[in-house]
Specification:
The complex is a heterodimer.
Chain A: E1 7-10, H1 15-26, E2 31-35, H2 42-52, E3 56-60, H3 69-75, E4 82-85, H4 93-98, H5 100-128, E5 131-136, H6 149-169, E6 174-180, E7 183-184, E8 199-200, H7 202-215, E9 219-221, H8 225-235, H9 238-241
Helix pairs in contact in A: 1-2, 1-7, 5-6
Chain B: E1 2-8, E2 15-21, H1 26-33, E3 38-41, E4 56-59, E5 66-70, E6 75-79, H2 84-91, E7 96-98, H3 109-114, H4 122-125, E8 132-138, E9 144-148, H5 153-159, E10 168-178, E11 183-191, H6 194-203, E12 209-214, E13 226-233, E14 256-257, H7 269-285, E15 288-293, H8 294-298, E16 304-305, E17 316-324, H9 325-342, E18 350-354, E19 367-375, H10 378-393, E20 397-398, H11 408-414, H12 417-428, H13 430-433, H14 437-441
Helix pairs in contact in B: 9-10
Classes of the chains: A alpha/beta, B alpha+beta.
Chain lengths: 246, 444
C-alpha cells in the first residue's frame, strides 16, 4: 500500500472526531488523535489500530491553551497532511447572557482556539505546498438566533476565518473545507429532542467529510436539506426575523 | 444518559415502556449494575422480549471497541457491543470470517454469545459459543470475572446461551476462520416435498453450509417442498481469473430502507401465498452452482434495513423449535400441516439440520429446526399455542432469542435445563439482579 497522508483530529474525543478518524483509518490513513487528557483515549486508539491495521497516535492538546500551540505543532512527527478541527462546545446560552466568563469560554473554544490552531497548520502546509484543512463549523453560524447566538457568533467567526484561509491558500496547493453538520446525534446532543429527518449520525458526517476531501469540496452541509433550511432562514428580512422564535 | 422509552425487540412485539441507559465505559456500567432487574442489550436483534430489562435496560452499543487481534490464531478480543458486521468489515479484507454467523450481521458479540446463535454450518461446526475462547462477565457487585473452558468454567457454561441472566458480558475473545476469498460457492437443490427435503439434507451433510427454504403454504403431496441451499467458502481457484487479484472485493450491495410501517392489509393470505409461489418458481429455475458474494449469501435480508416494518406497527412473532432427529419428519409434518391449514403462512420459513451440541443451555440439539414468522395478532398467537403443543409432543424445544410469548409451563416441560437455570439463579440471587421481561414471563 502506498503511504497515505497522516490525519490529525483536533478534538479527538468527540463522537464526530472519532467517526472521522475511523473513516480515514478505514481508507488506510495513519491517525493522530489530539485531545485533553489524551492518555484516556487508549481504548479508542487501540480500537482504530486493530480494526484498520494503521498506526494511531495520541497527543495532548488543549484548544484554550494558545501559548502552547506553536510547540504543539512543532513536535508532531510525522507531520499531518490532513488536519481536522472538531474543536468546539455548545455552552449554555442563558448562562452566557449573564456571565462574561461563560460567554468568553464558548467564544474561545469555538472561534479563537480552532482558528488559531488551523492558522498555524495553514502556515506550515503552505510552505510544503499541499495538504487539507477541514474545519467543523456549524449552521448556527449562518445567522444569529436568540437561543444560541453566543455559540453561533463564534462559529460564524470560524466560518469566515476558514473562508479567508481558503481564499489565501487557493493557489498554494492547500485546500480548506468548511463543514456545517446541522443536528448530529452525539453525546453533546443526547438529551435534546432532535427531529430525525434533520439529524445525522456521526458516521454520516464522517463519510461526507471523507468524500469532500477526495473531491476537494469547499463548503458542505452534511444533510443537503440544511442548505435549503439555512437559505430560507437567511432570506427572512431582519424586521420579521427579529420577531420570530426559531 | 438515562431515558424512558418504549423498548422492544426486532419483532416489535411486545413493546414495554422502560428505562434505557447507554454506558460508554466499564465504570459507567458498574454504576448501573447494582440496581435490580437489569438486563444487557446488544443491537436489539432478539425478536421478542429477551433484551427488555424488567426494571432497566443496559444498551451496550457504545461498548464497541476492538481490543486486539492475533493473526496467527485468528483470535479477536473485542467489547461486547461490537457488531458481527464490524468484525467482517475489519477482518474479511485480511482473510478472516466469523466461524459462526446468524442470518443477520447486525448482531452484537454479546448478544450472539448470550443467545448462543447458530448459523448454516451448525451441523459441521456447532454454535457461536464453540468459537468463544473466553468472556469477561460483570456481576451485580461490579466485579469482573474472566470465564472460559479452563477457568470459572461454571460461569462460562451458564453464560453461553444464558440470555444475559448471569451478568453483563463486557468483552470476549472469539476465533475467526481463515478464508481465501469473500465468495461462497453456492449449490441449490429442489425437493418436491418434506421427505425428499430431509433426504437431500441428510445426503449433503458434508457441505459446510446448508439451509432450506420451505414453502409453508404448500399442502398435500407438496407439503414441505423446499429449496436447499448448500455453500462452501470459495477458494482462490474457484474464482474467475479476473477476480483472483482482488479476492476480498465484492460488489457493494445497495442498501434500501423499508420506509414506513406497512398497513396490516398488505400482509394477507393472498400476498403471502403469492410471495411463496414466486419464490418457489424462482428457486426452481436457479438451481445448480453459482458464485455468490458473502453479503448476499449470508445476509440477504440485511440489504433491506428495517425490514421488520413489513409487518406493520403491530409487529410480528417468530416461531422456532428444534425436533430430535427421530421425531423430525413426523413433527415437521404436523407443524406444516397446522400452519398451512391456518392459512397463516409466513414469508420466511427456514429449515435447518443441527448437528450434535453439548452445552449447558444452548438451543441447538441434533435434529431439525424450523423457523416461521407471522404477524402479531390473536389468530397467530392461537396458532403458536398449537405449534407449541406439537413441538412438546415430539420432544422438541424452543429458541429463546426468537420467543415473545411462550408460556413458562411449556418451556419448562420442553427443556428441563431451564429449571436448573432457575434453581441456580434463585440460589445465587441472580434472579433479582439480572432479569428481562422474558425471564420474568418464563420464570427463569
Amino acid at each position: 500500500m502506498t503511504d497515505l497522508a497522516p490525519v490529525l483530529i483536533l478534538g479527538g474525543r468527540s463522537d464526530i472526531g472519532l467517526a472521522i478518524a475511523h473513516r480515514f483509518a478505514r481508507a488506510g490513513h495513519p491517525i493522530v488523535l489530539a485531545a485533553r487528557n489524551a492518555e484516556t483515549l487508549k481504548d479508542e486508539q487501540n480500537d482504530i489500530a486493530v480494526r484498520y491495521n494503521v498506526t494511531v497516535a495520541l497527543t495532548e492538546f488543549d484548544a484554550l491553551n494558545t501559548a502552547q500551540m506553536p510547540d504543539f505543532v512543532g513536535q508532531l512527527d510525522p507531520f499531518p497532511k490532513i488536519i481536522v478541527s472538531v474543536i468546539g462546545t455548545m455552552g449554555d446560552q442563558s448562562a452566557g447572557e449573564k456571565d462574561l466568563d461563560a460567554a468568553a469560554q464558548v467564544m474561545r473554544a469555538n472561534y479563537e482556539g480552532p482558528a488559531l490552531i488551523v492558522g498555524l497548520f495553514a502556515q506550515r502546509l503552505a510552505e510544503t505546498g499541499n495538504g487539507t484543512i477541514i474545519g467543523i463549523s456549524s449552521v448556527a453560524g449562518d445567522r444569529g438566533r436568540a437561543t444560541n447566538y453566543i455559540y453561533g457568533s463564534a462559529k460564524a467567526g470560524f466560518t469566515a476565518y476558514l473562508s479567508g484561509l481558503r481564499n489565501r491558500l487557493a493557489d498554494k496547493g492547500v485546500h480548506v473545507i468548511t463543514v456545517k453538520p446541522g443536528f448530529v446525534a452525539t453525546q453533546m446532543t443526547a438529551n435534546m429532542d432532535l427531529p430525525q429527518a434533520l439529524t445525522a449520525a456521526p458516521t454520516e458526517v464522517a463519510e461526507k467529510v471523507f468524500q469532500a476531501t477526495q473531491s476537494r469540496r469547499n463548503i458542505i452541509y452534511v444533510r443537503p436539506i440544511w442548505w435549503l433550511i439555512m437559505r430560507i432562514i437567511c432570506a427572512i428580512p431582519e424586521s420579521i426575523f427579529k420577531k420570530l422564535s426559531l | 444518559m438515562t431515558r424512558t422509552t418504549d423498548i422492544m425487540g426486532w419483532g416489535r412485539y411486545p413493546r414495554k415502556p422502560g428505562q434505557m441507559v447507554r454506558p460508554r465505559t466499564e465504570t459507567e456500567i458498574r454504576a448501573h449494575v447494582a440496581q435490580n432487574g437489569i438486563i444487557a442489550r446488544g443491537n436489539g436483534r432478539a425478536y421478542g422480549d429477551s433484551a427488555i430489562g424488567s426494571a432497566s435496560t443496559l444498551d451496550m452499543r457504545a461498548m464497541n471497541r476492538m481490543i486486539s487481534f492475533d493473526d496467527t490464531h485468528g483470535q479477536l478480543v473485542a467489547e461486547a457491543g461490537v457488531l458481527l458486521g464490524d468484525v467482517i468489515d475489519a477482518f474479511l479484507p485480511r482473510g478472516w470470517f466469523p466461524f459462526v454467523t446468524p442470518g443477520t450481521k447486525f448482531v452484537s458479540l454479546g448478544g450472539a454469545i448470550a443467545a448462543d446463535v447458530h448459523g448454516k454450518n451448525h451441523h459441521c461446526d456447532g454454535s457461536f459459543g464453540a468459537f468463544v475462547n473466553w468472556i469477561d462477565v460483570m456481576d451485580a457487585a461490579g466485579h469482573v470475572t474472566r470465564a472460559s473452558r479452563f477457568e470459572n468454567t461454571d460461569l462460562f457454561a451458564w453464560t453461553i446461551g444464558g440470555m444475559g441472566l448471569t451478568g453483563v458480558i463486557l468483552r470476549a475473545a472469539i476465533r475467526l476462520r481463515p478464508v481465501e476469498t469473500a465468495w461462497i460457492q453456492q449449490n441449490s437443490l429442489v425437493a418436491p416435498n418434506l421427505t425428499a427435503a430431509i433426504q437431500t439434507i441428510e445426503n449433503t451433510q458434508a457441505a459446510t453450509y446448508s439451509v432450506a427454504w420451505i414453502d409453508c403454504l404448500a399442502k398435500g403431496k407438496n407439503l414441505g417442498r423446499s429449496i436447499i441451499m448448500l455453500g462452501e467458502h470459495a477458494t482462490l481457484s474457484d474464482l474467475p481469473a479476473e477476480r483472483r487479484d482482488h479476492p476480498f472485493s465484492t460488489p457493494q450491495r445497495k442498501k434500501k430502507t423499508f420506509p414506513f410501517d406497512a398497513p396490516t392489509a398488505c400482509l394477507n393470505k393472498a400476498t403471502v401465498k403469492l410471495f411463496n409461489a414466486l419464490y418457489w418458481r424462482k428457486g426452481k429455475q436457479s438451481t445448480g452452482t453459482s458464485l455468490v458474494d458473502w453479503d448476499s449469501y449470508f445476509y440477504p435480508l440485511d440489504a433491506i434495513l428495517k425490514w421488520n416494518r413489513l409487518y406493520g406497527r403491530a409487529g410480528f412473532v417468530q416461531f422456532q423449535c428444534v425436533l430430535p432427529l427421530d421425531q423430525s419428519e413426523a413433527g415437521l409434518t404436523a407443524i406444516l400441516t397446522e400452519t398451512a391449514a391456518a392459512g397463516q403462512g409466513s414469508f420466511l420459513a427456514v429449515l435447518k439440520r443441527f448437528g450434535v451440541q453439548d452445552s449447558k443451555l444452548s438451543f441447538p440439539t441434533e435434529g431439525y429446526t424450523l423457523a416461521l414468522d407471522f404477524p402479531a395478532n390473536a389468530k397467530t398467537l392461537a396458532l403458536l399455542d398449537r405449534l407449541d403443543a406439537i413441538t412438546l409432543d415430539h420432544g422438541g424445544r424452543f429458541y429463546l432469542a426468537k420467543d415473545a410469548r411462550l408460556a413458562a409451563a411449556t418451556l419448562h416441560k420442553s427443556d428441563p435445563r431451564m429449571s436448573d437455570l432457575r434453581q441456580m439463579r434463585l440460589k445465587s440471587g441472580l434472579d433479582r439482579q439480572f432479569s428481562s421481561a422474558q425471564s420474568e414471563r418464563l420464570l427463569l
